[in-house]
Amino acid sequence: MSGGWLVTGAGGMLGQDLLARLAADGDPATGLDRAALDITDAAAVRAALDAHAPSVVVNCAAWTAVDDAEAKEDQALAVNGDGPRVLAEGCRAAGAALIQVSTDYVFAGDASAPYAEDAPTAPRSAYGRTKEAGERAVLEILPDTGYVVRTAWLYGAGGGNFVRTMIRLEGVKDTLDVVDDQRGQPTWTADLAGLVAGLGRGALAGTAPAGVYHGTGAGETTWYGLTREIFRLLGADPERVRPTTSAAFVRPAPRPAYSVLGHERWGVAGLTPPRSWRDALTEAFPALLAAERDTTHPAK
Question: Pairing state of beta strands 211-214 and 146-151?
Fold first, then answer.
């Protein structure tokens, strides 16, 4: 497997889709889930890198419980901040490139135009602060071979997410009240996997400069707008979806009001930027629907 890919956090939605994409493209890859590799354990990370000798490591492992992080910031920081640092140090010693998956939560969420890749970060939540720490570690330790791919509003067939939840609720609720004052970019994990795969190949070829990239669906909408599109794809009446505000769903961690990210650096790397979130959702929908129905009505 020398010279291939190593994917940490391989049991999650993105990890699953990335391994599938690499396999389809004929790229040798090993996936390690949380049980197989604790990224905060330096000895375990060194052993994994020695065993697999990857050319590219993609870190999909993360503490993603945004609200829990408010009360458990130290635990979240261990995974989201210390883990990437340990991986970066291991990759520096092994001569491997590292792609760190990050988040829109590193921004304040108060902009009115898409955040550029070099826009100042100003996280307002514990989760955002811990992910920012991971970004900083990777970029500082690996200035020439460290990559950060920020994403947001992820959905896929391989796990629970907003889109699958709305598919389920459409079947049991007459109407749904959905937040209409948070703007962002729905992102299919299979599309993000393609972006990450292309970036890794660019890293190996020396054509993709190290640094920050934004991996989100193009365009923008609100959770309300996304839900109306989900209903339309289900053949349901979008008027059953009613707009509400964030104040109706108070959470421990503040949600960014504006999470739209710019995509300029893909062109710099000679790579195709992300496609429309709406086109991606339309293509993803049959698999999402099948996955949700399998969960809701498992075979007996």
Answer: parallel
pLDDT tens for each residue of 220-263: 999 999 999 999 999 999 999 999 999 999 999 999 999 999 99
Distance CA 76, CA 194 (A): 27
- Which residue(s) pair with 241 in the sheet? 176
Contact assessment for residue 173 and residue 220, using Cβ atoms and an 8 Å cutoff: no
Stated pTM of the model: 0.96
Domains and CATH numbers, the chain: 5-159+186-219+260-275 (3.40.50.720)
DSSP H stretches of helix in 171-273: 189-205, 223-234, 264-268
Give per-residue burial for 137-166: e unless 16+ CB within 10 Å, then b. Answer: bbbebbeebbbbbbbbbbbbbbbebbbbeb
For residues 91 and 145, is the Cβ–Cβ distance under 8 A?
Answer: yes
Instruction: With CA atoms as reference, report the closest residue to 17 among 221, 289, 287, 214.
Output: 287
Eight-state DSSP code of residue 209: -
Q: Which residues are catalytic?
A: 127
